[in-house]
């Protein structure tokens, strides 16, 4: 069995928990997830089975979309609802829709974030959450991420209440912490804040509508229809620029040959999917670091076509 399984991750499980459970359900070991989702977060978690584990990183690197909820009035240690309260400040005055939309607009584009202490980012070989659990505060590296779009989902014109909440939808790059974004929204509005709810609605080309629950997967396994729900490896690579080749060149690609970069890909950066006329991706290439106009294979995915 191989391909991409679009899993609906339930609340209360880590991404690793999901992989562990699927190994038992599917009775196979070669399974990998495509990026950590916090236990409190639900939604789209693409799972790679068999040979498809080779392309997991390309889903991880692709853009993501979320729907979340910001609560103003108090912040927490984890920047989400599961943490301990660290600061309180009741929302004393009503906030207009226009104020919130202006803040969301100001956070669109490239922004700088500092990962929360309760995160999987490594500092000196140790994950930040390990320091946090020991009560140790360490200097955290800032990172630049891109917010492609962010919109207010609540239709109120005026927002009020001591602990005020509103929902938003965001499309963003790899590495974006939505928890931290919620805190940043609060700071811009003048109040401590945290992310009180979050669901991932899209990862690469996969959406909520594509996903299956654990119960549905177990039912499919029992009925012997599991392969019907798997997406091909190409589903993980749909966002990459493509180079279609002939059968003759395909044989060279399977053996790891370097290729001349076609004119339409000369200005690209990053990975390139090299595919057959039938749309099967044989390998992932990138620009050669020392030879202009040439690209070299990073991963050969298929050599048995």
TrEMBL record:
It comes from the Bacteria. GO terms for molecular function: RNA binding; tRNA pseudouridine(55) synthase activity. InterPro entries: PsdUridine_synth_cat_dom_sf (IPR020103), PsdUridine_synth_N (IPR002501), tRNA_psdUridine_synth_TruB (IPR014780), TruB_C (IPR032819). It is an enzyme of class 5 (isomerase). Keywords: Isomerase, tRNA processing. GO terms for biological process: mRNA pseudouridine synthesis; tRNA pseudouridine synthesis. Residues 23-178 form the Pseudouridine synthase II N-terminal domain. SUPFAM superfamilies: Pseudouridine synthase. It catalyses: uridine(55) in tRNA = pseudouridine(55) in tRNA. Residues 179-237 form the tRNA pseudouridylate synthase B C-terminal domain. Responsible for synthesis of pseudouridine from uracil-55 in the psi GC loop of transfer RNAs. This is tRNA pseudouridine synthase B.
């Amino acid at each position: 069995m191989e391909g991409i399984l679009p899993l609906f991750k339930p609340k209360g499980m880590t991404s690793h928990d999901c992989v562990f459970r699927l190994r038992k359900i599917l009775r196979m070991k070669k399974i990998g997830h495509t990026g950590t989702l916090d236990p409190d977060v639900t939604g789209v978690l693409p799972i790679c089975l068999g040979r498809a584990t080779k392309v997991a990183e390309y889903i991880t690197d692709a853009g993501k979309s979320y729907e979340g909820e910001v609560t103003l009035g108090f912040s927490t240690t984890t920047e989400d609802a599961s943490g301990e309260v660290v600061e309180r400040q009741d929302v004393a005055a009503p906030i207009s829709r226009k104020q919130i939309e202006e803040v969301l607009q100001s956070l669109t584009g490239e922004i700088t974030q500092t990962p929360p202490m309760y995160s999987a980012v490594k500092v000196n070989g140790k994950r930040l959450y390990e320091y946090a659990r020991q009560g140790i505060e360490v200097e955290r590296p800032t990172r630049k991420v891109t917010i492609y779009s962010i919109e207010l989902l609540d239709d109120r014109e005026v927002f009020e209440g001591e602990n005020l909440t509103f929902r938003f939808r965001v499309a963003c790059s790899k590495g974006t912490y939505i928890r931290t974004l919620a805190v940043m929204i609060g700071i811009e509005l003048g109040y401590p804040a945290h992310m009180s709810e979050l669901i991932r609605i899209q990862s690469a080309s996969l959406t909520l509508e594509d996903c299956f629950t654990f119960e549905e997967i177990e039912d499919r396994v029992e009925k012997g229809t599991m392969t019907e729900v798997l997406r091909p490896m190409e589903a993980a690579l749909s966002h990459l620029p493509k180079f279609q080749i002939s059968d003759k060149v395909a044989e060279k690609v399977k053996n790891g040959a370097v290729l001349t970069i076609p004119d339409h890909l000369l200005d690209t950066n990053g990975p390139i999917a090299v595919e057959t006329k039938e749309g099967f991706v044989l390998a992932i290439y990138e620009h050669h670091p020392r030879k202009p106009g040439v690209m070299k294979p990073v991963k050969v995915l298929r050599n048995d076509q």
